[in-house]
Amino acid sequence: MDNMLKDSVACGCEIQSEDWDLIICRCEEVTRGDILRAINEGATTVEEIKRRTRAGMGLCQSKTCCRSVQKIIAEVTGQPVSNIPPFTSRPPARPVSIAVLASLSEEDPQ
Ligand code: FES
After folding, report:
1. Which comes out higher in pLDDT, residue 92 or 84?
2. What is the reported pTM?
């Protein structure tokens, strides 16, 4: 891991855990070190972390990693976790063909 990040980040806050390679976002394989690096580069919100690292952009849409990202930001910036807004929720979207939708009305004429 970067020597620059071992003891503190840009804000001067102490980093308590040395577990830099811990996977925080399993869907996008984003580590704790990736998130700390993003914070060191100026990211201070979960949305900024998301744009820089892709954390929260995976299949689960941040259901698994959101709280961990919030906790890391809170740890580094010294804020309570309740002050860190979560990722913006977006429902999973998949294309559905018109033929599939049309077949639904024929099967269920209620
Ligand atoms: S664990 Fe981060 S998006 Fe799924």
Report:
1. 84
2. 0.70
